[in-house]
Design a protein that fits this description.
The structure is a homodimer. By secondary structure, the first copy, chain A, is α/β, with parallel strands linked by helices. The first copy, chain A, is built from 14 helices and ten strands. The interface between A and B is medium-sized, with 27 and 27 residues.
Chain lengths: ~325, ~325
């Protein structure tokens, strides 16, 4: 996998410059340790997902150009695939649940993707996606559980290693597990003294619960400010990597996530979505330098307004 | 002045790492030109003002440590001086108008400054400041019209030249004129083909109006979302530099400023204050690469909420 990440890095270099890693003076002061933020919210579509979207497409560009691509996502991966496809001269069909927000639909269409509706279940979304793939021969871009996706995600880990010296604790949001699998592979290979800590919302603990037993656990996603992290079952491939390389998985409450989004806006002047802020929500006081991956900033404007109005954490 | 800027750069290097310059995919697409954003909102106090605050203090550190410092500001410079003083082991008195918001007072105190109240006029603020300076022998840090302040501001220009190749148009907010004086001095010295464009709110056109005639014009600041840019009269020193080096000064409406703050939050995931967003508000379509200095992000949380709720510009 590490070799695939290095290949992905070379592929992405012409299309995606590294995102900034900044030291947060405010968080460092508050927590008594150096806290760094990796600003994936500044990616073209507002999340890290452009990395795997581009990598999957560029790794199979001939097929993508001749047959198009298809993916299954109601959120950040949808927008990222639409964007990467448009930039690469590729036709993209994105299977989204009917219940997905107008905001996400509009953004996906705005980046040039064609939205295909399905029923409001993960099962229906996958069924529709696989049917389109089989009937049309389109290239399937998986949101988390393919080698190209994990390798694209892993480029973020390589950037961290270049941007920060010495050992650090990396706090990485987990949905299907692609991002943390890629980051952990890169970071542990190059600097094994680093720790990689996954973070999920208490409302959606699928990976957290799955690593306890022998097989993947299917949970029922509950409403959460970290809506981008909702997934019923972790990937098979990502689960194996997480078991092997991730040091710990922490769960954070809705209250902590809300407070983190609010602090990031008011004190750090960064708009983060709930799923992008879980790393900050999980940060403990003291210890060695911490890196929080702000994985995305695509929060609904009305949600951001209500978070800004929320009372401070007692 | 260019030599002073280079000295300032060396002085600030250990305390303030360069802020990121990012390419905004969204704005570049929308305006049909490469648009870059210089993220001063990510500075420790949320604005570029830490540059001149540190430079003024470190240039005269012995006096600052023995007698303390004093400044006159109701906003970003107040917070920056408080921060730089605390970091440098210096006592700071900050003269603020009684009417300054609780948010700004609390932030100034939070960074370790002592707030001294004065009446709600610029005249009273300066009178109080000068009196303290004379009675106590404190080092006066001027928010815009001293060589050390302009030189500290100019370090931002040197960073731009390192971060971006080729000629560009720089859009720089103007209040007293310190920032644009420093940036124009650095940029025009090294790359004279660059253009430097100042931006003010229509509500506060003091520099815009002053460069037309022979002498500085005093205007009555009107309420504006770009409250950090409100100043009655530009500096003498800055007015001279602006006349000589700045290519143009544009005025932007409240509606445009509101729209810019909203777009930056929703599309670019950055919290900018009104005064920090005027460059984006002034951007015209097409042309060569543009750099907008996002000078600060210290918008009142309730103002940000109302901006997010504002209707789109027709």
């Amino acid at each position: 996998m590490f070799g695939l990440i290095q290949q992905a890095r070379a592929r992405l270099a012409p299309v995606l410059p590294p995102t900034p890693l900044i030291r947060s003076d405010f968080l460092s002061r508050r927590l008594g340790r150096d806290v760094f933020l990796k600003l994936e919210s500044l990616q073209p579509t507002g999340s890290f997902k452009v990395r795997p979207a581009f990598n999957g497409m560029l790794a199979n560009l001939e097929q993508a150009r001749s047959a198009g691509v298809v993916t299954s996502s109601s959120g950040n991966f949808a927008q990222a695939v639409a964007y990467a496809a448009t930039e690469s001269g590729v036709d993209a069909q994105i299977v989204m649940m009917r219940g997905a927000s107008k905001f996400k639909r509009d953004r996906t269409r705005g980046f040039g993707g064609t939205v295909v509706d399905c029923e409001d279940t993960f099962a229906s979304r996958w069924e529709t996606t696989f049917r389109i793939q089989e009937e049309s021969g389109r290239l399937l871009l998986h949101p988390y559980d393919s080698p190209e996706t994990i390798a694209g995600d892993g480029t973020l880990g390589l950037e961290l290693l270049e941007q920060l010296e010495g050992d650090f604790d990396a706090y990485v949001p987990i949905s299907g597990g692609g991002l943390i699998s890629g980051v952990a592979t890169a970071v542990k290979q190059v600097r094994p003294g680093c720790r990689v800590i996954g973070v999920q919302a208490k409302a959606n603990p699928s990976m957290h619960d799955s690593i306890k037993g022998e097989t993947a656990v299917t949970t029922r996603p509950e409403p959460s400010l970290a809506d981008a992290l909702a997934v019923a079952t972790p990937g098979e491939r990502t689960l194996e990597i997480v078991r092997r390389l991730v040091d710990d998985i922490e769960l954070v409450s809705e209250k902590r996530i809300t407070e983190a989004v609010k602090l990031l806006a008011n004190e750090q002047k960064l708009v983060a979505e709930g799923g992008g802020a879980v790393g900050v929500a999980a940060l403990a006081r003291g210890g060695r330098p911490a890196v929080c991956v702000l994985s995305g900033g695509n929060i609904l404007p009305e949600k951001l307004r209500s978070v800004l109005a929320a009372a401070a954490l007692a």
